[in-house]
Design a protein that fits this description.
3-stranded antiparallel sheet; flat; 6-stranded antiparallel sheet; 25 helices; alpha+beta
Length: 801
């Protein structure tokens, strides 16, 4: 066997593929791995790694060895004077649980993105159709209005974007190809069937405690796609400085199998081979049982994967018609130059799967790995079944959160033990009795003032009787017979130890970043809620690398599942299991997935926002709701989006859309109001016209009525006038007759009066003549009898004539 170089025990890789597939080649690889990890036994790399990881797990459980603490407090190994509780203080488990449970609570959603040329072309065609509809919206609406034809290229529906800004969000949220939906359904189904949540919790625990986590994906015809937890304690790998172990070329794990399980996995083993294997005692440097020993009923098997390369050689033969045909050949194919055919080849990565009993020359399996997972973006590369990550690794050395704080946990334990010592040695306060002082006291009532009586009086009343002078009159130096004794300064020591305890506890918080706001142990009642959230956010930032590593391992697991789906669909049993488990709407897509190698998927994890991010998003949502910038339905949809950046983008678009809708509604309201006003004015004008017409008709009717009334009135007046005229004529006739009669009477009277006057005048004239002639005295012509108002006067003479 040819080796790579003198410093390597691995076999040469520049050999034909036929030699690489030989069992002897696989045994050389297994020996080389075993030599790197198990040579030297107690000082072997595997033993040191096992001991280190085992010690960290004990610290994480609060079950670390107490021997170091006994050595610290013992005097030359003697512990006979110490009666202490040596059980470790479980400080580290609290911080581990906070960190692990906090990561386990972060939910995520698996997103599948088809990125092969066919899917990209379909996605681009879909987006361009919507984009063309947006740009030609006016023309499409005009054709639809005038010709009643829908000439739009894109899909129809209420969720179709109306503007170019909405198109990217629509493509991320609403657009999903059937192949992507089926892929997501299958990945989720495989994760659920393998109880990946439990595996994730164990991996998160390992990342916190050990600083490294690992999972393994596999495939078999009975169970389909499998996901297994890998204990980093039993893990072996090639040297790497990559925290994601992307450049390792071998990896494996030690499994402890019982003999029946070994026969089940390797049925080709004969009874003689099993008998030899059973007699092999194993080695305590490898996996152990709960007694710390290697059981004789178990066998330690190294399962490993070895990455190398293989030459793909093709014979390109040209036919008589000019067409070329490729025929695959062995890598040793080296034909002479010819005009009819030529040689084409390329080198690709391949995986060999092996299994060997540790410490024994029995090789259980060596074969070219079945169902290798190859990223379709680069078909030359191959992915290993193991997904490993150690976020804080440098030069092969792995650091974890627990490894940072074990020394502080040791100091806390020692402080706790010292505190027990101080408490054990503390004595209560006592009193000092001076017997000479008691002897000088005479109570005067015959009672003896002995020490017992003095103590009773002191403890019950707190009073003491003493004498300043002795019976001889000298100064009594024991004038205070009872004095209280103070114990040693144990309280000061206890305070100092408690401060030391708090100091190392704070050191753990400072080193890990898990402050009081994160665990809620000592919240400050005076601190604002915002400050507490800020402190918790800072703590999350300090441990975010562990969460990111956990998500990376989940992502790698999902990618391996995606690449193994085609294998699961090739076999009837696993295909039927998938058809029964996924939605019936995705059954039709299985035929497309059966040729999964023509599809290339990008797998993404949409992580649910943490409490701080949710609070910021909710604050924006509540502000928009208060301003009525979005609808309640929009707020519900935005809360369902796990991607915070996308949620804020949707919030802006919904807010802008709501604003445009409100403006449109406002414009419609203005137009409706203007139309309503116009209609109201028109109705008012019509009403005015109708009113004027009604008034005119009413006036006409009134005038007509008046005219008829006037005519009737005139007729009646004419009739009345006629009657009056007739009556007047009659009256006039009568009046004329009366007037003529009166006139005749008057004339007759006048004539009569004239005649009377003439007669009187003639009489008077004759008397005057007679007077002149006779020269008589003046004659009074007044009637004397008429001047006197005596007797009854009749008024009949005053009646009108």
């Amino acid at each position: 066997m040819v080796y790579t170089n003198i410093n390597s025990s691995f076999p040469d890789q520049v050999v034909p593929d036929e030699e690489k597939q030989s069992l002897d080649y696989g045994l050389q690889v297994a020996r080389a791995i075993e030599g790197e990890w198990f040579s030297g036994y107690e000082n072997a790399r595997f033993a040191n790694s096992y001991a280190r990881f085992h010690n960290l797990k004990l610290y994480a459980r609060g079950e670390q060895s107490i021997q170091k603490y006994k050595n610290e407090l013992s005097i030359n190994g003697d512990l006979s004077y110490l009666n202490l509780d040596w059980k470790p203080v479980p400080v580290i488990p609290k911080f581990v649980d906070i960190l692990v449970n906090g990561m386990s609570q972060r939910d995520y959603k698996i997103k599948s993105f088809a990125q092969d040329p066919t899917s990209v072309q379909e996605r681009t065609k879909y987006a361009n159709s919507i984009l063309n509809d947006i740009r030609n919206k006016q023309y499409i609406d005009a054709v639809k209005t005038n010709l009643n034809l829908n000439i739009s290229e894109g899909p129809k529906g209420d969720n179709i974007p109306k503007t170019i800004d909405e198109l990217p969000v629509h493509m991320q949220l609403d657009y999903k190809q059937s192949i992507e939906i089926a892929e997501e359904e299958i990945i989720n189904n495989v994760l659920d069937s393998n109880r990946h949540d439990l595996i994730k919790s164990r991996v998160n625990y390992d990342l916190t405690v050990l600083g490294i986590g690992a999972t393994k994906t596999g495939f078999n015809r009975s169970e389909g796609i499998t996901i297994d937890y890998v204990d980093p304690t039993n893990l072996v790998w090639s040297y790497t400085e990559d925290p994601n172990f992307e450049d390792i070329w071998y990896v494996g794990e030690i499994k402890t199998l019982s003999l029946p399980e070994l026969k089940k996995q390797f049925p080709h083993l004969t009874s003689d081979e099993l008998s030899k294997i059973q007699k092999y005692p194993g080695n305590s440097s490898f996996a152990r049982d709960w007694n710390g020993r290697n059981s004789d009923n178990t066998i330690q098997v190294l399962f490993f994967e070895y990455k190398t390369y293989a030459n793909q050689v093709f014979k390109i033969k040209q036919g008589t018609s000019g067409l070329e045909k490729a025929i695959e050949k062995r890598d040793t194919f080296n034909p002479p130059e010819s005009e009819n055919f030529k040689k084409a080849f390329r080198a690709i990565e391949v995986l060999y799967s092996g299994a060997k009993i540790v410490g024994h020359e029995t090789m259980l399996r060596w074969e070219l790995a079945r169902n290798m997972t190859r990223p379709n973006a680069d078909t030359v590369k191959v992915n290993m079944s193991y997904s490993i990550a150690a976020p804080r690794m440098y030069k092969g050395n792995i650091e974890s959160t627990v490894s940072r704080i074990t020394s502080f946990a040791d100091m806390i334990q020692i402080t706790h033990l010292k505190l027990q010592q101080v408490l054990a040695r503390m004595v209560p306060d006592g009193v000092y009795l001076d017997a000479d002082g008691l002897a000088e006291v005479d109570l005067g009532n015959g009672t003896n003032y002995n020490p017992a009586e003095a103590l009773n009086m002191y403890f019950q009343t707190g009073s003491i009787i003493g004498r300043s002078l002795t019976q001889d009159g000298d100064l009594n130096h024991a004038k205070i017979p009872i004095q209280e004794l103070q114990s040693s300064g144990g309280q000061n020591k206890i305070s100092a130890l408690i401060q030391t305890y708090q100091y190392y506890l704070q050191m753990i918080r400072d080193v890990t970043g898990l402050n009081e706001a994160r665990d809620g142990s000592v919240p400050d009642p005076d601190s604002l809620v915002g400050l507490q959230k800020l402190a918790a956010a800072n703590s999350n930032t300090a441990t975010r690398h562990i969460l990111q590593t956990s998500l990376y391992l989940i992502l790698k697991t999902c990618e391996n599942i995606s690449l193994r789906v085609a294998d699961a669909l090739l076999f009837p049993l696993t295909r039927m299991a998938l058809e029964a488990s996924i939605s019936k709407y995705n059954v039709a897509t299985l035929d497309e997935l059966s040729s999964l190698r023509i599809h290339d998927f990008g797998i993404f994890l949409e992580l649910e926002p943490d409490e701080e991010e949710k609070a910021m998003l909710e604050q924006n949502i509540q502000m928009c709701l208060q301003q009525q910038s979005i609808y309640l339905e929009d707020a519900i949809d935005i809360r369902e989006i796990h991607n915070l950046k996308l949620a804020n983008q949707v919030l802006k678009l919904r807010r802008k859309k709501k604003q445009q809708y409100d403006e449109q509604i406002q414009l419609q309201n203005i137009q409706a109001q203007a139309q309503a006003n116009s209609e109201a004015a028109e109705r008012a004008a019509m009403a005015e016209v109708q009113k004027q017409q009604a008034i005119a008709e009413t006036t006409l009717q009134i005038e007509k009525g008046k005219s008829q009334f006037d005519i009737q009135k005139l007729q009646q007046e004419g009739q009345i006038k006629k009657q009056l005229m007739e009556l007047e004529f009659q009256f006039n006739m009568q009046l004329t007759q009366a007037q003529s009669q009166a006139k005749r009477g008057e004339e007759e009277y006048k004539e009569k009066s004239k005649d009377e006057r003439t007669r009187i005048q003639a009489t008077q004239q004759s008397e005057l003549i007679d007077q002149r002639k006779k020269d008589l005295a003046p004659k009074n012509f007044e009637s004397v009898s008429n001047d006197q108002l005596t007797g009854n006067i009749g008024l009949g003479q005053f009646n009108p004539r």
